[in-house]
Design goal:
The complex is a heterodimer.
Chain A lengths: L9 E12 L2 E13 L4 E5 L6 H8 L8 E10 L2 E2 L5 H7 L4 E4 L3 H4 L6 H13 L3 H14 L5 H4 L9 H13 L5 E5 L7 H18 L2 E6 L2 H7 L2 E6 L2 E7 H6 L4 H9 L52 E4 L2 E3 L4 H5 L5
Parallel strand pairs in A: 3-8, 3-9, 6-7, 7-8
Antiparallel strand pairs in A: 1-2, 1-4, 4-5, 9-10, 10-12, 11-12
Chain B lengths: L2 H5 L6 E10 L2 E2 L2 E2 L3 E11 L4 E5 L6 H8 L7 E6 L2 E2 L5 H4 L6 E4 L13 H11 L7 H11 L16 H13 L5 E5 L7 H18 L2 E5 L3 H7 L2 E6 L2 E7 H6 L4 H9 L39 H5 L11 E2 L4 H4 L1
The chains are: A alpha/beta, B alpha/beta.
Chain lengths: ~350, ~325
């Protein structure tokens, strides 16, 4: 993908985000870094509450503060730190250079405006198009995302669209200004597999045609395996593993990554072999109210040693582009028993 | 095995025949075309067996599941539970059959009363069907143990539980009356992967211990493959293919089943070219296409498909509703 290593278009650097809650401070994102290179698709995976969506929202500064607090770190878009940017500057960027699609297209589209008006609004605001030109462009965008009969559909309201079409309309809206970065937060979670396949196909095609770099936030490792170039695995506000997608699935190293893969029923093991018991990750995600004293995953980890409960593991490189935050990474790769 | 189970060994526990649920619609003051949510569904379920019911949203799989328990009243058809047709029983006689069939719901929060303690939630079905003070509390405690909830959880309220624990609570409630059949409507789709694995393992363990039958409604094909013995694929209110799980997944015969399976993203190599992308969305069940309902999205559709609706056919356990199943296989 990016052998030449061009400058990253988007860089999250040691980001820490906390939320003030009535019973203490919740460290939702606790020192996360990643880079996004032009034209690539980066997957961020993890379970509910791991901080993946909070990271995504923070890129566009969509988190209301208070309660959200940016404790430290930087988010650099083409070198510019977005955490220092003025609100006016952010408004210039949102929906223009960086845009976002959300999980639920019904609650993120305006129900009282037609689809055409919503797309045209973005184009008039950011690109200075006139009303007629913007309207024509809106129809072109709907055509681009594969909505049949776009001339008629631009005049319709979101409730007249099916779930898959609404998600397409939202993608059309997000891509109207040809953004350099698209952040897709669980874009297919609410959709059926056949529609999911259509949407992922569409994102992949648009990335190739328009060169948009995409951050795909998802809990579905299957989607990641098929679409992404690189993957970041998050757990309890930390990045626990990062690798190129083939490397991650060939040599998953962090016990949490391995746990996720083992917990997924798959379509490949023969049924005749009898039921395979799914691997469980015992226990639950920890509360993020206390500062981490050891590895956040240690209480649920089969490989944990005494040291794991005392030392916060640092992210260490394992191979080119493959980094793991686990004290026992080498032992695990060498096949140490759990 | 006792005498009763031996006597019914030949007949399935549950036999559903031609189940129909039509919802009336209105166009102004006149009646519009009915929405055919379930349009002639037939299947059997054996003791200790899991039948997976899959399909896209709006295909009628949840309607079919709820109609079995008469949470939705069927328009027509027969629901034979051990030889009794439940669809025709008057309400007062149907009540005792409710013990035999229970349900686990998708949303573990919405299906638990937020103002009841967990212990009372599990005890409620017991109270409804004759609470015994000597035996009741021990039974509730036993149920908590069975689903892996600590005993002190009985005094808590639903909001104090995590999603996975709430689903365990829902399962404990469903087990309270020692049912023979549990209808699971998307029981794990709201849960994270690691928690989903815990609940699936629990359901499998309970089946092995208690010889439960499950009707497992889900859209996640990997989960269904994992837990089911047989699978039925639904499209627009009809079953288009039904058979043993290994046949359906290894040798799908209906074009829709193939498209569904090929759309599932997989970890670990598959050439992208193999994917069979379906065009468009599910047609409206109020106005389904003539003939085969799938023909508008089917890459193999021919003129005949618009004229005649295919019936489920095939030899043995694997049956498919497609005119050209033999030619495209």
């Amino acid at each position: 993908m990016n052998q030449a290593h061009p400058a990253p278009i988007l860089e999250v650097d040691d980001l820490r985000i906390a939320f003030a809650s009535p019973d203490g401070i919740v460290r939702a994102v606790d020192g996360v870094s990643w880079q996004l290179f032009p034209g690539e698709m980066l997957g961020i995976v993890g379970e509910s509450g791991c901080g993946k969506s909070v990271t995504a929202m923070s890129v566009l500064r969509l988190l209301p503060g208070p309660p959200a607090m940016y404790a430290s770190g930087a988010i650099r878009f083409r070198g510019e730190n977005l955490l220092d940017a003025t609100e006016a500057r952010m408004r210039e960027l949102r929906g223009n250079a960086i845009s976002m699609i959300f999980q639920d297209p019904m609650t993120s589209l305006n129900p009282v405006l037609t689809i055409g008006e919503q797309i045209a609004e973005v184009l008039m605001l950011h690109q200075g198009l006139g009303r007629r030109a913007a309207w024509t462009r809106a129809a072109e965008m709907l055509d681009l995302v594969g909505i049949p009969d776009p001339q008629r559909r631009v005049c319709e309201y979101p409730h007249q669209f099916s779930g898959g079409m609404r998600q397409r309309a939202m993608i059309a809206l997000a891509l109207a200004c040809s953004p350099a970065v698209l952040i897709a937060d669980e874009p297919t979670t609410a959709l059926d597999v056949t529609i999911q396949a259509q949407i992922m196909d569409l994102l992949d095609r648009l990335r190739r045609e328009m060169g948009t770099a995409i951050v795909l936030i998802t809990h579905d490792l299957g989607v990641v395996a098929e679409s992404c170039d690189r993957v970041v695995v998050m757990y309890a506000g930390n990045k626990v593993e990062e690798a190129a997608v083939d490397e991650l699935f060939a040599r998953p190293t962090h016990p949490y990554t391995r746990g996720l893969l083992g917990a997924m029923p798959d379509l490949d093991t023969p049924v005749e072999a009898g039921r395979r018991r799914l691997a469980e990750i015992p226990g639950m995600v920890p509360s993020l109210k206390q500062a981490a004293v050891g590895c956040r995953f240690a209480p649920r980890c089969a490989y944990a040693e005494a040291g794991c409960h005392r030392t916060v593991p640092a992210l260490a490189p394992l191979a080119v582009g493959h980094a793991v935050a686990c004290l026992r990474a080498i032992d695990i790769l060498e096949g140490a028993p759990a | 095995m006792n005498a009763r189970t031996l006597a019914v060994e030949r007949a399935p526990l549950l036999a559903v025949e031609n189940l129909v649920k039509h919802y009336p619609t209105r166009r102004g003051w006149r009646a519009g075309p009915p929405v055919k949510a379930a349009d002639g569904i037939s299947f059997d379920l054996e003791e200790g067996e899991t039948l997976g019911l899959v399909g896209e949203s709006g295909c009628g799989k949840s309607t079919a599941a709820k109609t079995l328990l008469r949470l939705i009243e069927p328009t027509a058809g027969r629901i034979m539970l051990e030889g009794t047709d439940l669809a025709r029983l008057p309400a007062h006689r149907f009540r005792r059959y409710r013990r035999e069939m229970q349900m686990v719901f998708q949303d573990p929060y919405a299906s638990l009363n937020p103002r009841m303690r967990a212990g009372d939630i599990v005890a409620e079905p017991l109270r409804n069907f004759g609470w015994d003070n000597s035996d009741g509390p021990a039974r509730v405690a036993d149920l908590f143990g069975r689903v892996g909830l600590p005993a002190d959880a009985m005094r808590k309220y639903p909001h104090e539980f995590s999603g996975g624990q709430r689903q365990r609570l829902g399962i404990a409630r469903a087990l309270a009356l020692r049912p023979k059949l549990i209808v699971c409507d998307e029981p794990v789709s709201a849960l994270d992967v690691s928690i989903q694995a815990q609940v699936i393992n629990l359901l499998e363990d309970l089946q092995d211990e208690l010889k439960l039958s499950y009707l497992f409604v889900a859209h996640d094909l990997a989960v269904v493959r994992h837990i089911s013995h047989r699978v039925a694929v639904m499209y627009l209110g009809r079953i288009v293919e039904i058979g043993p799980v290994e046949d359906i997944y290894a040798r799908p015969r209906h074009p829709y089943t193939r498209a569904l399976l090929s759309a599932v993203p997989k970890v670990g190599g598959r050439g992208k070219g193999e994917r069979m992308l379906l065009k468009g969305d599910l047609p409206s069940p109020a106005n389904p296409p003539s003939g085969c309902a799938f023909r508008t999205r089917c890459p193999f559709a021919r003129a005949e498909c618009a004229e005649r609706a295919p019936q489920l056919s095939g030899d043995g356990a694997h049956r498919v509703a497609c005119h050209f199943a033999d030619q495209i296989a």
